[in-house]
Automatic annotation (TrEMBL), chain A:
InterPro entries: Ba3_CcO_II_C (IPR034214), CcO_II-like_C (IPR002429), Copper_CuA (IPR001505), Cupredoxin (IPR008972), NosZ/Cyto_c_oxidase_sub2 (IPR051403). Residues 56-168 form the Cytochrome oxidase subunit II copper A binding domain. Its main location: other. The lineage of its organism: Bacteria, Bacillati, Bacillota, Bacilli, Bacillales. The chain crosses the membrane at residues 9-31. Subunits I and II form the functional core of the enzyme complex. Electrons originating in cytochrome c are transferred via heme a and Cu(A) to the binuclear center formed by heme a3 and Cu(B). It catalyses: 4 Fe(II)-[cytochrome c] + O2 + 8 H(+)(in) = 4 Fe(III)-[cytochrome c] + 2 H2O + 4 H(+)(out). Keywords: Copper, Membrane, Metal-binding, Transmembrane, Transmembrane helix. This is Cytochrome aa3 subunit 2. It is found in: Cell envelope. GO terms for molecular function: copper ion binding; cytochrome-c oxidase activity.
Automatic annotation (TrEMBL), chain B:
The keyword Transmembrane helix applies. It holds the Pfam family CoxIIa. The lineage of its organism: Bacteria, Bacillati, Bacillota, Bacilli, Bacillales. It comes from Aquibacillus koreensis. The keyword Membrane applies. InterPro entries: Cyt_c_oxidase_su2a. Keywords: Membrane, Transmembrane, Transmembrane helix. The chain crosses the membrane at residues 21-47. This is Cytochrome c oxidase subunit 2A.
Automatic annotation (TrEMBL), chain C:
This is B(O/a)3-type cytochrome-c oxidase subunit 1. GO terms for molecular function: cytochrome-c oxidase activity; heme binding. Residues 17-484 form the Cytochrome oxidase subunit I profile domain. CDD domains: ba3-like_Oxidase_I. GO terms for cellular component: membrane. Its main location: membrane. The chain crosses the membrane at residues 21-40, 52-76, 97-124, 130-149, 170-198, 218-240, 252-270, 290-312, 333-354, 374-394, 415-435, 455-480, 514-535. It comes from Aquibacillus koreensis.
Length: 168, 50, 551
């Protein structure tokens, strides 16, 4: 098949750009470890609290090392369970110091939910039977809205919480 | 078609004289390519900055 | 069976027209739902009579993305096949049979949604559970469309037998590629609906494997968007050149790009599941690479389109670097509407590349950016091309003429559409980058500061949506006018010839066994190992949740 000279140049440029994108993405994913969230661990969706991470006392924010935090969350229609405070009230805001490493691990007891921290790269699907997990470092202090971004029923749009990143 | 190939003749080697004049097309698609590159890198840098 | 140069056989016309009626009625209903959504979401309207936001969102998605597209495409393709390779009485009977099954399925699904028993959106992700008739209706739409597939295959087969050694007409070749793509893709959604959803919703089994159902859905979900796009490409490659007074730039490049679409649009479904647990990151990346392969035929198409325009403009005596643009019939809506659609594909396609870019998907996944993206692709590029087709196809079918007045009204319709979409889709893209989610009713997210920032963009979406609804009213008026009021006469069925400069089409491009073989091999490569992995490491299944969708 015969190609026009300009078409050849265009295809080389176009395909070259696609290769450039893939190399940038590939280096990021495989070398720097910025794969999109692809955690493979499974869990019984009808008995998530049998799993250590999702026992009542382990929900919400836990410090696991210097500048290292773990946030365990049970999503269900239409709520994120972040544990309770000293008074036994449900926690609605998680406070994390800036520049610390945070791992979010989330599962659901019912349908599919989204787990998105608006304005950050924390964005993953939460599916029954799986533990979704993502590690991040918050570079900017601020108040971020945690919200469900996958339709989960009539109250989907009220499913939200807050993450506050503060300067210690 | 003959008209455009006549124009081509002046600048190009004789074996390419059958190729139609497609300068405008070339610039248009390269502009399109540039648009794709710029847009992609804008979102890429948003990803890196967050 | 092939009649004169302009009109079409009367029986074939009624068949195509029946499909068009369903498509345009769907356009009106779906568009109205879209308008209501943007009004609710901007906080300007509360729905009366206990109608739910997610109920109208389900109607909007099902009726526009699944019903309008499928009926328009199958009807348009029957028109192309009837025109290029002909249609026997038997083939027409089977086409009608497929039509009635699809229509029956559509009505079954629609009634279930309207009764409030299937507010699960058009992606119907398990374990949200709709009433069984929702899934049964969808299955019937797919089965009906398969009858359309096999009718088209048969049409080309019969033509080939009669015209031994000749290459098939370009448009017939393209239709068969699109229907092959559709058939192979719908096997996935048929499998999940028939084997998983229907028994589960009927209570025959207690649980469903969620990740398997999603993987099968997205095996179908991406080729689905190419099933929408390819008929637009058919018009661009093989009809627009005729309308602008030019010729097809290259028959072989057109066929090559369709073959590439067949091969690479299916083994790429994981790029819709990039942020999901349970799928290995390496296999996600492999499918991202394959996704990037499917961009190449669109790069080819971009060049072919501009080249057709430039050669045509120059052949009319216009010179200079961009002087040939003046040689294009900007005042002919049959060209203008698809041309605006093509231009919209520049940001639309770019957005698509960004969406599929592996980890970058975390920036945009399930934000309203995605909604903005597909309102450019299917909602502008594809639909404006379909409108562009309608301006000549409906008159051909009804034996009337496209009048000057309707041509002008069509131009206005196109501008209204482009303007409304610019506002709506533009604000969706920006709000999405800020983090605003898609598929959500009006919410302040507990008075969050970020959500306050989004409201302005949601208002802009309502303004854009209202302008688009005006566009829909205009289009429905034009549709009805072309059927009932336009003067009788003959309208041209524009089919382009190949440029005399183009090289002869090589024989291998019609080696169906080869293309289907490669397609199947690529699918097996991309899916076998990760799919076995998903099944082997399956968690306990999920029971259904139908109470969550009641309002």
């Amino acid at each position: 098949m015969h190609l026009h000279k300009y078409e050849k140049i265009w295809l080389i440029f176009g395909i070259g750009s696609l290769i450039l994108f893939l190399v940038v993405l590939g280096v990021g994913a495989f070398y720097k470890g910025t794969h999109p969230p692809s955690h493979l661990a499974t869990i019984d969706p009808q008995n998530v609290q049998a799993h250590e991470s999702f026992m009542d006392e382990n929900l919400g924010l836990r410090q696991v090392g210097e500048d290292q935090y773990l946030v365990s969350v049970i999503a269900s229609a239409f709520n994120y369970n972040l544990g309770t405070d000293e008074d036994g009230k449900a926690i609605r805001t998680v406070r994390i110091p800036v520049d610390s490493t945070v791992v979010f691990q989330v599962t659901t007891t019912d349908v599919i939910h989204g787990f998105q921290l608006a304005g950050t790269n924390v964005n993953m699907m939460v599916e029954p039977g799986y533990i979704s997990s993502l590690e991040t470092t918050f570079k900017k202090p601020g108040t971020y809205t945690l919200l469900c971004n996958e339709y989960c029923g009539t109250g989907h749009h009220i499913m939200a919480a807050t993450v506050e990143v503060y300067q210690p | 078609m003959s008209k455009s190939s006549l124009q081509m003749k002046k600048k190009q080697a004789p074996k390419e004289e059958e190729q139609p004049e497609l300068k405008g097309t070339f610039i248009a698609v390269m502009g399109l390519g540039l648009f794709i590159l710029i847009s992609w890198f804008i979102v890429y840098f948003i990803f890196v900055a967050r | 069976m092939i009649t004169n140069k302009t009109g079409m056989n009367k029986h074939d016309s009624s068949l195509v027209m029946a499909h068009m009626w369903v498509a345009f009625i769907s356009l009106f209903i779906g568009g109205l739902m879209g308008l209501l959504q943007t009004l609710v979401r901007s906080g300007t309207l509360t729905l009366p009579f206990g109608i739910g936001y997610y109920q109208i969102l389900t109607v909007h998605g099902v009726i526009l993305a699944l019903v309008l597209t499928t009926f328009f495409i199958i009807g348009f393709q029957f028109a192309l096949m009837s025109k290029t390779v002909g249609m026997t009485d038997k083939q027409r009977d089977s086409a009608w049979f497929g039509f009635w099954i699809m229509l029956f399925g559509t009505v079954t699904t629609a009634v279930t949604i309207l009764l409030g028993k299937a507010s699960v959106l058009y992606t119907f992700y398990a374990p949200l559970k709709a009433y069984p008739t929702f899934y049964i209706g969808l299955a019937l739409v797919v089965v009906g469309s398969w009858i359309g597939c096999f009718t088209n295959f048969r049409q080309l087969y019969v033509w080939k037998k009669k015209n031994k050694g000749e290459k098939s007409p370009l448009l017939a070749f393209m239709v068969v590629i699109n229907m092959l793509l559709w058939f192979i893709a719908t096997l996935g959604v048929a499998a999940t609906v028939l084997i998983q959803f229907i028994p589960w919703s009927l209570g025959m089994v207690d649980t469903i494997n969620v990740l398997v159902s999603r993987t099968l859905f997205w095996y179908f979900g991406h080729p689905l968007v190419y099933f929408w796009l390819l008929p637009a490409y058919m018009a661009w490659y093989a009809i627009i050149p005729k309308i602008i007074g030019g010729k097809i730039f290259s028959d072989s490049l057109a066929r090559l790009s369709f073959v590439l679409f067949l091969m690479f649009s299916i083994p790429v479904g994981f790029h819709h599941q990039l942020t999901e647990p349970g799928i290995d990151a390496t296999w996600k990346f492999i499918q991202v690479v394959l996704t990037f392969m499917v961009i190449i035929p669109s790069l080819l198409t971009a060049f072919s389109m501009f080249a057709t325009f430039e050669i045509t403009g120059r052949s009319k005596g216009y010179t200079g670097l961009f002087g040939w643009l003046k040689g294009l019939p900007w005042k002919d809506v049959r060209f203008f509407a698809p041309m605006v659609g093509m231009l919209a594909f520049i940001p639309a396609g770019t957005g698509g590349i960004i969406n599929a870019s592996n980890q970058m998907n975390q920036v945009v996944h399930n934000t309203i950016w995605v909604t903005g993206h597909f309102h450019l692709t299917v909602g502008t590029t594809v639909i404006l091309t379909f409108f562009g087709i309608s301006y000549w196809l409906i008159p051909v079918l009804t034996g009337r003429r496209l009048t000057k007045k309707i041509n002008t009204l069509g131009m206005i319709q196109t501008v209204v559409w482009a303007f409304g979409m610019l506002i709506m889709s533009g604000s969706m893209h920006i709000a999405g980058l800020l983090g605003a989610p898609r598929r959500s009713s009006y919410s302040t997210y507990g008075g969050s500061e970020q959500a306050t920032e989004w409201i302005g963009y949601q208002l802009a979406q309502a303004i854009g949506g209202s302008i688009l609804f005006i566009g829909i009213i205009l289009m429905v008026y034009i549709f009805l006018y072309m059927i009932y009021a336009a003067p009788k006469g003959e309208e041209e069925f524009p089919i382009s010839e190949v440029s005399e400069n183009a090289e002869p089409t090589p024989k291998f491009l019609e080696n169906w066994k080869l293309w289907i073989g490669i397609t199947v091999a690529l699918i097996l490569f991309a899916y076998t190992i990760p799919f076995i992995d998903i099944i082997q490491h399956s968690p306990p299944g999920s029971p259904g949740f139908d109470m969550l969708i009641r309002h």
